[in-house]
Amino acid sequence: MFMTPLSATEIQTYNANGGKKAVDSDPQAMQDRFLKLLVEQLKNQDPMNPMENAEMTSQMAQINTVTGIQQLNSTMSSITTQFNALQNMQGTSLVGRQVLLPGNQLAFDANGVGQGALELPKDAKGVKVEVISTTGTVLGTLNLGDKTAGTHHFNWNAQAAGVTDLSKVKSFRVTSDVKGVAATVTTLAPQTVESVSFADGAMRLRTSSGGTVAYDDVKEFM
Hints:
The protein has 222 residues and is of the alpha+beta class. It has 2 domains: 8-94; 102-191, Immunoglobulin-like, CATH 2.60.40.4070. It has 3 helices and 12 strands. The protein has helices at 8-16, 27-43, 53-94, and strands at 98-102, 107-108, 113-120, 124-133, 138-147, 150-157, 169-178, 181-182, 186-199, 202-207, 212-214, 220-221. Strands 1, 2, 3, 6, 9, 10, 11 and 12 form an 8-stranded antiparallel β-sheet that branches. A 4-stranded antiparallel β-sheet has the order 5-4-7-8, with no helix packed on it. Strand 10 and strand 11 form a beta hairpin. The N and C termini lie far apart (73 Å).
């Protein structure tokens, strides 16, 4: 044959250099440029050995593949834009709300009642919460009893425990048993979302603790 079928790379190269008025992102423009190139091929082919139907069909399939990929990319770009807009709206609605994050500090209200939570991987017996002071002593104990697997909230009244200075409260710890074996417990702390930002397409929350956490780190919205 005088000319060989175009490869996908050659088609893409031709589209990329289709003239100043060509719009690479326009599938119709891509097809027009390809058809012009195909016509030139037909004009300049060897009349003694013309292009076969199968070869022409192969080239048409190539341009359809390239066009389809570009249309898919355009669709995905549009979906990404809409998703980012939705995230922005969702992020705005989170400011001022309380979230539950991994941590071991109580969140106290105006009445001196501290809130905390814990997450159990399995059913546990004898779940106990101990509130720890800045010096390492136990300020108070909550016996929560038997708990099922999952997240559980609790409150600790500092005044009822004789603690009037909340600055002396440092953290809390949780112990429990699963059939006589110490269970792995995740301590959770309520925090307030103060602002929302985006980094590398991911939402990040700045909380009342002064730290920044990923949206996926949130265990619960309160």
